[in-house]
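Please review the protein record below. Let me know how this chain folds according to its tokens.
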Amino acid sequence: MLHLRLITPADRTDDVVRLIERTVGTTHLVVLTGAARNPAGDVVTCDVAREAGDELIGGLREMELDRTGSIAVENIDLSLSKRADKAEDEAPGESADAVLWEHLADATHEESTLSVTYVAFLTLATMIAACGVVLDNAILIVGAMAVGPEFGPLAGICTALVQRVPRLAWRSLNALLVGFAVALVVTVGFTYFMDVVGLFSTVKLDAERPNTNFIYRPDAFSFVVAVLAGVAGTLSLTSAKSGALVGVAISVTTVPAAANAAVAFAYGEYRQAWGSTEQLLLNLVGIVLAGTFTLVVQKWLWAQQRERTARTGRF
């Protein structure tokens, strides 16, 4: 269930209430006349089944309530109410399959913002992966994958393509390119430093490295895994099952590939550097294609669900 807290201009409250009342899957409607001070107006709250949330939020935005008042949405972790159970039963579809496009756009917008924190995480992840590459240590590679925040901008690109939001696409692409550029440059410098203190060496980089040599040897499986991870990551975002993102993060070879490219470049091993770059690009393209396709399919399936619901008169 979702909880909506709305601030409505006094002359629009009746329209808002009517919209909520005719939306199947809503309950616990409360109207507090004149309770809002900034902006001035009435406060309206209600609970709505997740699968009906996107429809209701879309209707509220069509009424321009996001401009004239306020729309706040939060998840309800626990609701002990027969009315809430009935609302969820009456709402079309399953809550796990519902996509809140406004929430997705907001989440990806935040995750794809080029910030000091984002760049720091990506850079640190790449440096950790560089240590894993030189030491041929799979644990460090997995740890670096988990730390890397690059899936946020990738999800932002997918969302922007499906929702046709050029500004979000540019923001996400900018975060991705600048973030990896900074991470690569810093990791090259980190490699020089580690070489000076005797912790990195060309011998270690050129060794057989059975645990990590796949990083600079991309193949068909690299693309397959990236596609599967892109689908899983997108589903975890749209279904609010964020725990799956950790599994997605340690499935793709983006950060390790960037790290191997930086270390190899620092030592003049351009063949390894190019192979790692191919691995990086292959993973990025695979994730974006899979994520975009997943969102398109979800959007189509949910549109079909709404059409079936409209024909049966449930809305």
In short: Strands lie at 2-8, 26-37, 40-48, 70-75. The chain has two domains: 2-94, 103-301. The domain at 2-94 is CATH 3.30.70 (Alpha-Beta Plaits). The chain has a mean pLDDT of 89.
